Amino acid sequence: MSNEVRALEPKSVWNKFADLNAVPRPSKKEERVIQFMLDFGKSWNLETFSDAVGNVIIRKPGTAGMEDRKMITLQSHLDMVHQKNSETIFDFESEGIVMYVDGDWVKAKGTTLGADNGMGVAAIMALLESTDIPHPPLEALFTIDEETGMTGAMGLEGGVLKGEILLNLDTEEDDEIDIGCAGGIDVTAIGEYNLDTVNPDYQGYNITVKGLKGGHSGMDIHKGLGNANKIMNRLMYHVATEFQFRIAEINGGSLRNAIPRESVANIVIHNTQTDAFEAMFASSVTTIKTELKVTEPDLNISLIISKLPNKVMGFDTQAKLLKAIYAAYNGVYAMSASIPDLVETSNNVARVVVKDGKIKIGCLTRSSVNSAKIDLAHALRSAFELAGYSVTFDGDYPGWNPNPNSEILKVLENKYVELFNEKPRVVACHAGLECGILGQNYPDMEMISFGPTILGAHSPDERVQITSVQKFWKFLKAILADSPK
């Protein structure tokens, strides 16, 4: 099906995207895509190297007459979020993404597409191998591990880059020019519990929450989407107050920056209470589905009789777990007072794992105000510590402070109006972009971010708009042709 994608215009970009998507590149396991990029740069006899952490840098001289322009650094990340539908059989570590065209969209078969940030990478590759596109001296920065810690951007040392302007190609609405973003921090709670032997007078059940849209925990957090971990906890919390109910296992969510789409739990109920339990469960499911019928029309919650497990969680520990997850804030916490319609602070209860005497709860807290980010992180810490868990803060990264007076912003605004006869939206976003981190070691570099329209990022519903890629490519080429001296 990649041939269908390769035939799209602009072919130079789509062919590079197809080449890239043939290379497995999940976060933390980018060895093959790093080598792929090194081989690409060297094949065109361009200055090509990787730094100590694995970021790849490729430089290309300016075209005739543009050699004395300011060098522009084009930046995108190599890794992709690896999410798939539960029924999809796919190995992200060994298989390339299976793509197809659906009207004006390119999609993947049951998995994330990798358009975030593969379209940016592909556009940069197309520029590096071009022979007829006017451009100033170019420096391509391909970072690693953006999706699970931004360790590539964090590990890039000062003095490596030579560009004076950085164009980050990692935003997802083609009428936006981004000049700021949120920072983030991982909040992880760890606990242990004693295992009790299951009485044979109990009945085992399997609860599954699925069919949620999921999505990007920054860009989609304001949409009121369902969180599988919170839904599962709500179901079990109310059951636990009425019945002799015990938890054997929970496995909910996946990546910290993806809104949880699925959760599975194994529980037991005393045999004398199964009929009443099933009735109450059905009533709770109806209530939740009614609440989410607009935002999550495909929500599916099932209850199936299962084999009785050997061990379950102790009652007191179970009560503390359910209360802690209920207390953990999820969703939009505060809106920005200075930028209209911008989410300032949020939290995503991303991962819940209960198994074999161990508990792990993972959250990603974001904010464009660092003090607010830390404040919400401490609120979560408090809820988890009251339950007796140890809590760590990791992966703290800064936001990117907007500069509405930058020279490159004026270039982009004017060029957008010239090309498309309308003004772009100049915004800050709630997602985490690498600009804030890179700016710590390159404080004098002007930075801007833009990209084609991508919907459903971080979920198997991810798709990129074909006509938007054409618009993005036209815009990018025009910016480079009229870049500052």
Largest sheet: 9 strands, antiparallel
Oligomeric state of the chains? single chain
In DSSP terms (H or I, runs of 4 or more residues), the helix count works out at: 12
Got a strand count? 23
The share of residues in extended strands comes to 25-35%
Helix content: 25-40%
Shape: elongated
**Terminal Cα span:** 43 Å
Rg to the nearest angstrom?
A: 24 Å
Q: Quick check: average pLDDT? A: 95
Task: For the structure shown, list the relevant keywords.
about 30% helix; about 475 residues; alpha+beta
Model description:
It contains twelve helices and 23 strands. It has 485 residues and is α+β, with helices and mostly antiparallel strands.
How is this structure best summarized?
By secondary structure, this protein is α+β, with helices and mostly antiparallel strands. It contains twelve helices and 23 strands.
Question: What is the secondary structure topology, with strand pairs?
Answer:
Blueprint lengths: L1 H5 L4 H11 L9 H13 L3 E4 L5 E5 L11 E6 L21 E4 L2 E4 L6 H14 L9 E6 L7 H5 L9 E4 L7 E6 L1 E10 L2 E3 L4 E9 L17 H13 L4 E9 L9 E8 L3 H18 L8 E7 L4 E3 L1 H13 L3 E5 L7 E13 L2 E10 L2 H17 L3 E8 L9 H14 L4 E5 L5 H7 L4 E4 L4 E2 L7 E3 H16 L4
Parallel strand pairs: 3-6, 3-7, 7-21, 8-20
Antiparallel strand pairs: 1-2, 2-6, 4-5, 5-23, 9-18, 9-19, 10-15, 11-13, 11-14, 12-13, 12-17, 16-17, 17-18, 22-23
Helix pairs in contact: 2-4, 6-8, 8-9
